[in-house]
Amino acid sequence: MITNKIAFLLFMVPITCFAKENSNMNEPTVVTYVSLERYVGLWYEIAKIPNPFQKKCAKNTTAEYAIRKDGKINVMNRCTKTDGEIITALGTAKIVDKTTNAKLKVSFVKLFGINLFWGDYWIVGLDEDYRYAIVGDPSRKYGWVLSRTPQLSDEIWLQVNEILKGQGYNPEDFVKTIHETNE
């Protein structure tokens, strides 16, 4: 039980301090502007580039964001393991680029009230109605497709793939997330 919680501490956090930059490629471009009031709330993970900190997540992965009074954002990530156990990670996000609100840092590790190991969380694609978002990091080692609903239509998925390609990601690297509606 304790090891599950420790392993899950880094759930959905791109630890870019350990990622090597791809020197042959420019960084992804973040969206022009993110209204935090519209962005907060519940998001379903539709697909991700597999990563070590989510290896125990088998299905029903979500992220929920809430603005705090100090301007930071509470983050609650949740998923279901293969044995049915639900695991949760609580974290904090802070805005790095206040002009766009599209570059954030996220930490799920806290020691004596201080957040440690901040990872990049860049919003590189966002539907104008905030129906879906594409999140990545400068190295393109990490990436997520999020949606307000557990599924995306084929038409929207094609749009997402075009954005991923335009941002230098290979859509084939993304693995779709299973969502069960009866849980």
In short:
The chain is mainly β. It has 3 helices and 11 strands.
Number of domains: 1
Strand content: 35-45%
Topology as a string of helices (H) and strands (E): HHEEEEEEEEEEHE
Helix content: 10-25%
Relevant CATH superfamily: Calycin beta-barrel core domain
CATH class: Mainly Beta
Number of helices: 3
Coarse structural class: mainly beta
CATH topology: Lipocalin
* Sheet with the most strands, sense and barrel status: 8 strands, antiparallel, barrel
List keywords for this structure.
single chain; 183 residues; Lipocalin; 3 helices; 11 strands; 36% strand; disordered N terminus
Question: Overview of this structure, please?
Answer:
This protein is mostly beta strands and 183 residues long. It is globular, with a radius of gyration of 15 Å. The strands form 2 sheets. Strands 1-2-3-4-5-8-9-10 form an 8-stranded antiparallel β-barrel. Strands 6-7 form a two-stranded antiparallel sheet. The protein contains 3 helices and 11 strands, in the order H-H-E-E-E-E-E-E-E-E-E-E-H-E. The protein has helices at residues 2-8, 36-39, 154-166, and strands at 41-48, 59-67, 73-80, 86-95, 103-107, 109-111, 114-116, 119-126, 132-136, 143-147, 175-176. It has a single domain (2-176), classed as Beta Barrel (Lipocalin), CATH 2.40.128.20.
